[in-house]
Amino acid sequence: MENNNHGHLETSKADKAVWLMKCPTLVSRSFKTQEEPSRPVAKVILSIDPLLSNDDNELPQFTMELLGPDCGNAPKSYSMDISKDFIPMSVFSESPQGKLAVEGKILNKFDMRPHDENIENYGKLCRERTNKYMTKSRQTQFINNDTGSHMRPMPGMMITSVISDRRRQPAKASEMKRTRRDRGEMEEIMFKLFERQSNWTLRQLVQETDQPEVCFFIHLPAYCMDALFFLSFVLSLSHFILISQR
Prior knowledge:
Layout: H1 2-5, E1 17-22, H2 25-32, E2 42-47, E3 61-66, E4 77-82, E5 90-94, E6 100-114, H3 119-134, H4 157-168, H5 183-196, H6 202-209, H7 213-245
Parallel strand pairs: 1-6
Antiparallel strand pairs: 2-3, 3-4, 4-6, 5-6
């Protein structure tokens, strides 16, 4: 800065009161696109309640109304909330020639928000903006290789696609997480299965009982012992009945 301006800083406007305003992007864009720079872009309305005494800590109410042309659902009126947590600052500017100057001292800091009267239109504007960004715009792309060879399926492409489709298939209900049954319920199910038929494979038993494989194989010896005990009891009982009949 000292090399460009020889250490000179214009301070004639250092004591001028300036407002720092945080405004939406829509408002700042409308300020920058004014055709006539000298034309007013907005007006600020100060609302004062005459019934309030000077001792009240109520802050004054500021409202800004844009003077530019209507922009669809864009709000025209904004509430200006005064920030209480404010650190004194100054505003600096730099001319195209590189000259630095102090434009003033910031007196108040404001946060702009759409006025309650325009909140419905502002909601419509937000929805329109969201839909605009979510909608994918069509793009035209030029293909250098116009022979069409890249559009024909190459050998092995169909097999790969079939394999990938098989991998994407969701798991069946039988392959989902199974609920573990208690021993008494499992014994009853096993007896009913062997009453239906005498020969079963282990895979068929797992599917019929709908149990986790690890849990089923851990308790399988106990089921077999119970079945053998029951079978021996039945044989002994039948032998006793035959002897009694004789």
